[in-house]
Design goal:
single chain, alpha+beta, five-stranded antiparallel beta sheet, 6 helices
Length: 195
């Protein structure tokens, strides 16, 4: 099997390659319907929660990677990973595990590098992606996962009450650029980050 190594920014911290570790861990946990679970898997998952395929394994790994987040964010990640098809009563798709994994990794890195981290609101989109939102009186930041990366929208309310909107796009693994957008929202940067 061919594998690719993805290099991700570390924000000055030593981090494990998230994409590689999720895929490798999922492959180790992948079992066939007629195969006994490895002993280490049986002790990690109750029988009712044992992984049944690679997607389920990736979801479990994403949830375990969220351990560095606050209890409320961990709970929200779990809720998002458990969404079923048609969760909106119409045609919504479940959140894609790799997309949720990228969101968790971004938030994990952000909490490690930012002393004034403010928890976002995490929302599923109908097409299986996710949106990360922060709002306060003067600024708002919405980061939405899209097909190949992230679509970012910022809003700034001026002294006259008018709102100015900014937008940008970045690659899915560009956590450094996403961090710059958060710094803008937090008021640490006055100018909207450009690439």
């Amino acid at each position: 099997m061919n594998t690719a190594t993805v290099s991700m920014p570390s924000y000055g911290c030593q981090v494990q390659d998230f994409a590689g570790s999720v895929v490798e861990a999922a492959q180790r946990l992948r079992i066939s319907p007629f195969q006994f679970l490895p002993v280490e898997t049986e002790s990690f998952f109750p029988a009712s929660l044992a992984p049944t395929g690679i997607a389920d394994s990736v979801n479990r790994i994403v949830i375990s990677r969220s351990a560095a987040l606050s209890p409320s964010l961990r709970q929200r990640v779990g809720e998002l990973s458990d969404l079923k098809p048609n969760w909106d009563g119409e045609v919504a798709k479940p959140v894609k595990a790799p997309v949720l994994g990228d969101a968790v990794e971004f938030l994990r890195r952000l909490t490690q590098r930012t002393s004034n981290f403010r928890e976002p609101f995490l929302v599923p989109t109908f097409d299986g992606f996710i949106q990360i939102e922060w709002h306060d009186k003067k600024r708002a930041l919405e980061i939405e996962a899209v097909g190949e990366g992230w679509s970012v929208v910022g809003a700034l309310t001026g002294k006259d009450g008018n709102r100015l909107y900014f937008d940008a796009e970045c690659e899915r693994s560009d956590f450094e650029q996403l961090g710059k957008f958060y710094e803008w929202f937090a008021g640490n940067e006055l100018i909207w980050p450009s690439q």
